[in-house]
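Lab channel / #folding
Pinned by the channel admin:
"Please post every new chain as: sequence first, then the structure tokens as a reply. Keep commentary short and put observations after the output so the thread stays searchable."

First post following the new format, from NK:
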Amino acid sequence: MKTKKALILVDHGSKVDKANKLLIEIVNLLKKKQNTGFDFITHCHMELSRPTIEDAFEQAVNSGATEVIVHPYFLAPGRHSKTDIPNMVNKAASKYPNIKYRVTEPLGVHDKILEVVLERAESLE
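Reply from TO:
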């Protein structure tokens, strides 16, 4: 049986709707890309807004995913990406013992992030 992979991007979440919509934009751009390697891509928020991690995990499983990758959409590692989010994912996944899942590192240091920083700085000139 072919593995169906899901990708869940999770941010902190905000009471400000405009802030929450940024992650939706990122997910929509990912969905438009071809050959991502994922059959299902969605978003969720750690707190303060829906969908929750539990909601998104359930959506992924209901989409037919047999493997779920959760990516904390955070710049740097910290308590949320190292402890809180993995704990929430473990809780959500406990309802689906046959589903393989992993939590990635946050964005961190990467050449492509450096490109964005320089692009933003140069755009002010």
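NK: The radius of gyration is 15 Å.
TO: also worth noting, The helical segments are 17-32, 53-62, 79-93, 111-122.
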